[in-house]
Amino acid sequence: ADPTPSLWFAEGFTQYYGPLAIHRAGESTLEAFLASLGGTLDHIVNNAGRQYGSPQEMSLRAQYVDAATSIDPVNERIFTSYYPYGAVLALLLDLKLRERFGTDLDAYMRHMWKRNGATQKNYAPAKPYTPADLEAGLAELTGDRAFAKHYFDDHVRGSNLPDFAPLLAQAGLVLRQADAARPWIGTARIVVRGGSVQLDEIPYPGSPLYKAGLDRGDTIVAIDHKPIASPADWSAALAAMKPGQPVAIGFKTRAGAGTATITPVADPKLSLTTLEQAGGTPSAAQLAFRRAWLTRD
Question: Cα separation of 21 and 238, whole Å?
Fold first, then answer.
């Protein structure tokens, strides 16, 4: 393997540009574009893997998870794909460049091409870029080395992400919980094996099921003292839950049978929509920002 710490840029930024280019070309509706972008944001903002590694570190793990064979299955709760991770970093940088410097991600990509890509040798860049090049290129474009360092320290070498809601509000877009009344306990995925209903993924760290000590492969025996013997029983039990209201759960793990009380929380899933669809009226400045970002020149 030949690892690189920059797949968040090489693969992730293209992940951002794919849907954006299709929308700018008029081949997708605004609603479809925002649904896709909102799904990517939700996947990364609410991703437990960010606690265990930055985009740079996730890039270096590619050989263990991306089209590779490993003895152990991938733990989806400690790995975050650099594809959507990088797409979210591209969105962040695009919005920040527009907000603070009157430029955009397109200009940054053109600058990096001229800086590290245009001069070729043997059909490859004569000066392949490194993480230091990417940071230096951002400082050159903005004229602000402190901004470039902060972006890379916080979001590339670190795992921090800002609140995207005010950044997206500049374009008259609303990022919010999709359904705050919907209960969430850490996972809804189950599988039936040998007549038993078992969890089919690791519960989200810190979630109600996780706090109860449950893991992938554990059997759910009962919820609210009602037997769980089929996917229909499981779905009915989830539908009956309410955020903030405790419920009893019976289970079997490798350690044996057990019971616990879990308290569902509001589903953290995010959605992205226009201010108009949310019942508001965008300002002229918000519409101008949206046009400059989402339409072709």
Answer: 39
Question: Which domains are seen in the chain, by residue range?
Answer: 7-178+269-294 (no CATH), 183-266 (2.30.42.10)
Element spanning 190, H or E = strand 190-193
For the chain, counts of helices (H) and of strands (E):
13, 12
Instruction: Read off the pLDDT of residues 260-293 as tens digits, 9 standing for 90 and up.
Output: 999 999 999 999 999 999 999 999 999 999 999 9
Rounded CA-CA distance 12/272 in Å is 20
What's the burial of 138, exposed, middle or buried (CB within 10 Å: 0-12/13-18/19+)?
buried
Structure tokens at 48: 């437990």
pTM more than 0.90: yes
- Burial status of residue 200 (CB atoms within 10 A of its CB: 0-12, 13-18, 19 or more): middle
φ, ψ (nearest 5 deg) of residue 230? -155, 165
Structure confidence at residue 75 (pLDDT): 76
Residue type, 19: P
Q: Which of 111, 110, 160, 156 is nearest to 132 (CA)?
A: 156
196: number of CA atoms within 13 Å, CB side? Answer: 14
